[in-house]
Amino acid sequence: MRGSTIDRPDFLPALQGELLAVIAKYIPVDKENIKVSMERQG
After folding, report:
1. How far apart are CA 30 and CA 7, in angstroms?
2. How many angstroms separate the CA atoms of 22 and 1, rounded?
3. CB 27 within 8 A of CB 38
4. Using an 8 Å Cβ cutoff, are 31 and 14 in contact?
């Protein structure tokens, strides 16, 4: 996927916000105490 937007790190903050918003719909979340990390495999 070379050259795609997934190769760029600028989508990560938006993705993190979206993930937290979805999780917060189901359980109480203190966003200050959440750490999101990702790693690429393959």
Report:
1. 29
2. 27
3. no
4. no
Contact between 20 and 32 under an 8 Å Cβ cutoff? The reply is: no
Q: Write down how long the chain is.
A: 42
- pLDDT, tens digit (0-9, with 9 covering 90-100), for 23-32: 999 999 888 8
**9 half-sphere exposure, CB direction, 13 A CA radius:** 4
pTM of the model: 0.55
Handedness of CA 5, 11, 12, 18 (dihedral sign): negative
Apex 15 CA angle, 10 and 17, nearest 5:
115
